[in-house]
Design goal:
Blueprint (H helix, E strand, L loop, with lengths): L1 E3 L8 E8 L3 H11 L4 H10 L5 H18 L7 E19 L5 E17 L6 E3 L7 H7 L7 H6 L7
Antiparallel strand pairs: 1-5, 2-4, 3-4
């Protein structure tokens, strides 16, 4: 995991998707998972998540990486998502005809998604933190001793009693 030191604002590249036809809350659920992660890790997360919002966000992340490689000539392995935000867009309103001459309103929400990326190789403002990674599971499973279950089945165990 990478932690940012306190400094002035660096140059960022971004991709902006406007009027994406989904609720801002549904897109925010996916955006919260990828904020602050590296480019490659983000692509893996978005491919494996089962939400409909992942595909337009995947396209925006891919577009922001293409902008970074073209404008700043940076490597994709050094890219980190510095800012990811979802704003509420306009609501598309239609009327659906119903029985007896009535009509019901249909409201389709839209959202605007902004993905900003930063190249961490251009500046020395990021430090790697290994202390946040906890390896508690290693001690738990290596210390566990497995019993030989063949003794219980061969002797009959509790099933031999009459």
């Amino acid at each position: 995991m990478l932690k940012k030191k306190k400094t002035e604002k660096e140059k960022e590249v971004y991709a902006l998707g406007q009027h994406i036809s989904m609720s801002a809350d549904k897109a925010r659920r996916v955006i919260d998972q990828i904020r602050g992660r590296s480019y490659e890790e983000t692509l893996m997360i978005l491919e494996l998540m089962p939400y409909r919002a992942c595909y337009p966000i995947f396209k925006l992340v891919y577009s922001a990486a293409a902008n970074a490689s073209y404008n700043m000539s940076s490597n994709e392995a050094n890219l980190v998502i510095s800012k990811a935000e979802v704003n509420k867009g306009t609501t598309i309103k239609k009327f659906k005809p119903r029985a007896r001459g009535r009509s019901y309103p249909i409201k389709k929400p839209t959202c605007h998604i902004t993905i900003a990326m930063k190249d961490i190789s251009l500046d020395d403002k990021y430090v790697e933190i290994d202390s946040l990674k906890k390896t508690r599971w290693k001690n738990k499973y290596t210390a566990m001793a497995y019993r030989d279950m063949s003794d219980m089945y061969s002797s009959g165990g509790i099933w031999d009693k009459k």
